[in-house]
Amino acid sequence: MQRDYIARFMANPGAVVGLIFLAAVIAGSIVAPMFLGANPWEVAGRPFIPPGQDGFLMGTDMLGRDVALAVLYGTRFSLLIGVGSMLAAVLIGATLGAVAGYAGGWVDDLLMRITEFFQILPSLVLILVLVAFMGASVYSVIIGIGVITWPNVARVMRAEVMSLRNREYVEAARVIGQRPLTILVVQILPNAMPPVIVIASLMIASAILTESALSFLGLGDPNIMTWGYMIGTSREYLRFAWWISLFPGLAIISTVLAINFVGDGLAAALNPRMEEGR
Amino acid sequence: MAVSRLTYVRRRLGRAVLVVVAVVVLGFFLIRIPPGDMVDVIVGEAGGADLEFVEMMRSHFGLDRSLWEQFLIYIRNVLVLDLGFSYQQQSPVLKIIIDRMPITALIAAIVMVFGVGLGMLFGAIAATYVNRWPDTLVSGFALLFYATPNFWLGLMLVLLFSIYVQWLPPFGIRTLGMQQTALSGAIDLARHLVLPVIALGTHYVAIFARITRGAMLEVASMDFVKTARAKGLSRLQVIRRHILRNALLPLTTYAGLQAGNLIGGTVLVETVFAIPGLGRLTYESIVTRDYLLLLGILIVTSVLVIIVNLITDIIYTFIEPRVELT
Prior knowledge:
The complex is a heterodimer of chains A (278) and B (326).
Chain A (H helix, E strand, L loop, with lengths): L1 H9 L2 H24 L30 H37 L1 H16 L2 H12 L3 H27 L3 H8 L4 H37 L10 H8 L8 H28 L1 H6 L1
Chain B lengths: L4 H26 L7 H9 L4 H11 L5 H13 L5 E2 L4 E2 H36 L4 H14 L3 H15 L17 H39 L2 H8 L4 H39 L4 H10 L3 H29 L7
Antiparallel strand pairs in B: 1-2
Helix pairs in contact in B: 1-12, 2-3, 5-6, 5-8, 5-10, 5-12, 6-8, 7-8, 7-10, 8-10, 9-10, 10-11, 10-12, 11-12
């Protein structure tokens, strides 16, 4: 069973390439600072050294900081914030979705209205308000992204739980006297997880995009080096130092693409029937 | 259970009003998040004020009363369309927002037309040549643009078309110091909007291409398409009259759902291109910590999105009479 999953995932070349790429970037962002220097804020040379000169692969920025090092540091925090906000969204969304799907009736109605409400709001404006009001920090960014993305998880989880709650094995658990909460957690949730895992993996990618937008607008954590921050602060120098903006952008695109490929691979691995239907 | 269109519209309208009320109530709680009360924030940002003024503002906002009374004051203000006063810009919040709205509405409309039009075209090409090279090309570009942040794309377009080859202006909406007639003014505006529209629009082209492709492939396997083919219609006729037309339906719903998303996109693109619209205003209100203005923008844009969704819901019932209204 487990081996089947892995085999189906491996049969998808895009997913494998994506996974290898991600593994390489994560390893790179951990190992590289040992060679390149530990502090991305530190001045490493003259300002505005073009890429490839004086040993700076991606050049230096307006303060003479190493762009390559900053991009690598950005990987760390982008992935951390991506995973963190995905967990926040799954925590809120999966809980509410599971309760709505299992309880049904007015509880379901109420929770679904709340879900729709959060889906209809202009999400970027909402998160700007939340982060600006809470003060820019890693935590407010994670909470903000969690608040605007949980409805997606809630919908998927609700649909899964609804399709599972009347299965025979769940009825059986009910007959032997298991309590509703136990049934939900022990019997239903494990089987409802595959689609949630797929959507969660894709949410890491969209969280990275949202975080980069926030940092670009100056609402990222001021103490960490992120890709969006690099693009936002260097854009006035675009005319004579394009490389400071170019490389962080390429980092965002390649990471988001890789995560999307892995997500597609997971979808194919966890739900083979869906792929055949396409 | 199916109901008449009138009942349906009335129900949708009722729900929309409820959502607007929820947005307003949400706003009341959001403004309580920043440390200190609203007056502290305003005075702090204004660089201090005399005590009398501070007390006057506290009583204006009702901050010296109970939470419930504050809530009632807030609701009363919103009902008379008073979203507060921006001390940074020395003007009522609603007036500032309305002044900045037209250019953003123009950009949003162009982007939507551009996105839906080209998206449908590319999606239709991909679906027609499914799993052959045009499909691979379209799907590949869709994935790529889906992963590209629009603010970065905007900067790279400026680098290429305004700095490197100097074909198009890099920022603003009109050339300064230029004598303008109506026609030359319109052309000037159009030239300024080319890059912002591309930066924002490619994302929607990608989304709508994927949706169109998916919807067309789903329709293509249905019986009525087989019938159309069997009675000897050409491939192009089948695609145009039978497949594409039926695949349009899911597209309208998605277009409505993208409205909120689009407003978020304008914040980034208007910031990059220094376009004096609602998006740029959002950025300015963040930089100047103009909390009341920022909250006002959230409320106004939310109401706009709710209205757009209501309209697409109603349009939907006209183009698809078979849909069961609930």
